[in-house]
Structures are given as C-alpha cells and as structure tokens.
Amino acid sequence: MKKITFLILLMVSCWSSLQAQMRYLDQVFTQTSVTTTVYGNNHSVITLSQLGHTFPIPQRVDIYRPKDDAATNRPLIIYLQTGNFLPISVNGSCTGTITDSSNIEVATRLAKMGYVVAVASYRQGWRPDLPNIQLIHYTWINAVYRGMQDVRSCIRFFRKSVAEGGNPYGIDPNKVVVWGQGTGGFVSLAAAYLNNYEELLTTSDTLKFMLPTAGGYIPMVNPIYNGDINGFPPAGQTVCKVDAALYAATGFPLGDTLCTSQNAGYSSNFNLCVNMGGALSDSTWLDAGEMPLISYHVPSDYYAPCQTDQLYLGPICFAILPLATGSCDLHDIIEKNGNNSIFEFVPPSSDPYKVDGYSGFRRFNGTPNNSNAPWEWRAGPNPQPPSPLSLCNNNAVSSRKYIDTIVGYFAPRACLALDLCSLSKTNEINSAEIGLSVAPVPAVDAILFQTTDEPIRSIYIYDLNGRLVKAHTNINNNVFRMERNSLINGLYIAELKFDRGFAKRRIVFTKN
C-alpha cells in the first residue's frame, strides 16, 4: 500500500511539473551571473598596422549562466558578435564588440532559460581598402576562416574544462550550439558546413578561392600557413608561417605566424547552427545529413544577401565580392536535403512565432527604416563609434521586440535538436473527447494506444526528469502498439500529438 501511495504522489508531482513553466522554453530564472575568461591566445593580423607583424592576442569570452542553478549538464551556446571583422572604431558600424546591447540581451534571456551562453570574441582583420578586388577577397575569406578556427577552439576550450577542470561552467559537452549574429553568421555557417579544407578547392567555381599571381594561381587559404579548419598546423609543426609564395603574392610579412595550436585534444563538433543575418561563403559546402540550421534574415538586406548574390562589404567598402548564399537560398537547399526535418515536429501550440514556409527560417519583412539588423541598437559599454549616434538605432524597445521573436522561435527548435524537453504546454485535448485508451497500465512488454475519433500523429515518451527517451513519428493511425524496448522499470509521461492539439497520459513499465 505504501508503494502504491508513493507512486500516486510521484505521478501527481511529475504531472504538475509538466504543466508549469519549462526550462529551455521559458525564463525560469530571474538572475544571471557573468564570468569573463580567455579561451585562447592566437596570432592576429589586426596588429599589422601598429606593430608591422602579427602578434598573439588573448581571445575573450563572457560566460552567462543562470544564477543559483544547481544543474551541471546545461547546453552551451557559443554566441558570435557582428562587426565586419574590424574594431568598432573603424568598422563603419555602431556595433561590433562582445558587449553590444543585442549580445547582452540575447545571452541574458537564454541564460535565464537555463542555458550557458558564451559570448566569444574572434580574431579580426582584413583589408577593404586595397585597390585589387581579388586581394580584398583574399583578406575577407581569410577573416572568415580564422573566425571559424576560433569558434572551434572555443568549443574545445569548454570540452577541456569539463575533462580537466571539473566542469566549472556546468555544461553538457555533447549539446553545443554556435550562434552567429551579422558577421558572426558568416563564421557560424562556415563552422557548421565547411567540414574539410578540400571543400574550399572543389566549389562549382574552381577559381573562387584562388589568388592569381605572376606564377599562376595559388589557394587563398592554405593549411601550410593558415592551419586546418580546426586551427592546427601541419603535422610536425607547432605554428603556421607565411611562406615565400604567399609573401610574393600578397606582401604579407615573410615568416609571420598566422596560426598556432589551441586547446588540442578535444572535439570541435557541435549540434545546431544559428545564423542571424549572415551568409555562407559557398553553398556547395552545405550537404544533406549535416546539422540543422535556424536562420533570421531581412530579405531586402543589401549587404549580406538573403539569396545567392554578390557580397557587398558594408558601409566601409563598396567592393563587390564573389557570390555568397544567404538564408533564403540556404533554406531552399536545406528543405530539399531534409536537414531540418526535426523541426517539423514542433507543435503549433509551442510555436507562436512561426511564419508560413520553412521549418527553420524566420524572415523579417518591413523593418524600421529598412534596417538589415533590426535586433541591434546602440547602447551599453561599447566605445564611441566614429559615426554620429544620430545615425545609429537607439530604439531599444523596437529591437527587444525583434529579440522576443528570435528567442521565442529558437526555443522549441533547440529543444528538439538538442533533445532537451517536452514542447506542448497549451491546446491540450481532453482524452474523453477523442476516446483515448491506453492499456495495460502497468505494462510489461508493450502498450496499446487507441482513439475512436482522431488519428494519432506521433507519440513522445518522457522520463521523470523531462527527458525525451522514446519517440514515434508519422504514426497517422488510430491504433499504435508501442514496444517497451530498452525502457527501464518506472513511470513515464506519454505525449500524443494530434492535428488539433495533444494529450498526455501516465504510463508505467514493470517486471513480470
């Protein structure tokens, strides 16, 4: 009798918790803490104008966490700033540091939802002022490549902190998101879909990433002096240096170091990419079976095209560079490839910010003053930009409304992509209305779900910690027999999805 009473109380407790606000979907914490540290110390070309040579600079990261949270297995989001790969003093923009208002706002909201958010700097530096467009393109693609190396180094830093440092940030190293804003979107997309160096040389335009020289074409990016996609030098070397061929082609200081090994020994992989106004340098990098993508884009964006178009490098330089592919065309490819199929199971009740069309792409039409980044505004501890503040967006209220949509659209999709939580909180159907029966309870080997009125579309099974432990999709039938398989003895919540909502039932598996 005591065991039965305990089981009933446990059921009631679990049922009540599922009806309350949910971690990773809602802001369940009221305060956050921010820790600043350094994740790497790599050579940067930004020092050339002052020192005449590259020089190693510390790579800072601000880590946002929910305050007074005991969890130690939280998903990690690496958040990358915008800024045209140049310091804010010369980038022609009103933003461009890790303390931009939009960075702080998004990171704080996500931390209050239970995430750990690392707003990370990455190496800056390129030359939009050169007279030769091919040399300008060379410096641009190298900036993207270095940023990609840095974000992968940052991921390894956190994995190393778990393995060797006692997990001081309380993360799950197997649930990692890379989120790029503006210029950071170019970096997050490259990190997600440029999976090996050879893809740079096998694009549909074989000369796209080649630099013409007196002796013929040479690759704009070469692992010998740039390092591989993870930022590691060739085997047997500790650093990557400028060789004679690169010096002759570009005038880059002979012997300068371009890359050193950082946080070696750990995986650079991640699970989900987010692009907020960036573009992929070449669409052939995106293949079927690769990670899901969530994108936000203003379709009329002049600088970073939403379609596949030539890249205009912002207000600091009106040079036109080779084709890049923005969110509109990227998600055409993704829909055909099925990369975002997991998002199709976001229930409408958990998705108030969805628009018709793609499963992971949120367009923003008709933005104020035709802004290409309506989520950004000028405020916070940034240094004074060179442009007058009157030319900057100072409307924090409007920008935060866009961030409402951005975070609200992200949350349910991240829950599915990272396998974090149950999604349905509204539009619950009374089981009697659809004649739902679930038997036997308790069960030993299998459970039969049956309705008299409405076909079952899918069934998700959650354990007492709210973790998704079993899922059956595309059922589309009034009867479904679910085998137990590897589920251990205990209580679970079954969430059945229908066209007009969902229903939840408690199920129990026991021994014979």
Walk me through the structure:
Helix 3 (101-112) packs across helix 10 (396-417) and helix 4 crosses helix 5 (183-193). The chain has helices at residues 2-19, 48-51, 101-112, 133-165, 183-193, 198-201, 223-226, 244-250, 327-337, 396-417, and strands at 32-44, 55-66, 74-80, 116-120, 171-181, 210-213, 216-219, 239-241, 257-260, 272-276, 293-297, 308-312, 320-325, 361-363, 437-439, 446-450, 458-462, 468-472, 479-483, 490-498, 501-509. An eight-stranded mixed β-sheet has the order 1-2-4-3-5-10-11-14, sandwiched between helices. Strands 18-17-20-21 form a four-stranded antiparallel β-sheet, with helices on one face. It is of the alpha/beta class and 512 residues long. It is built from ten helices and 21 strands.
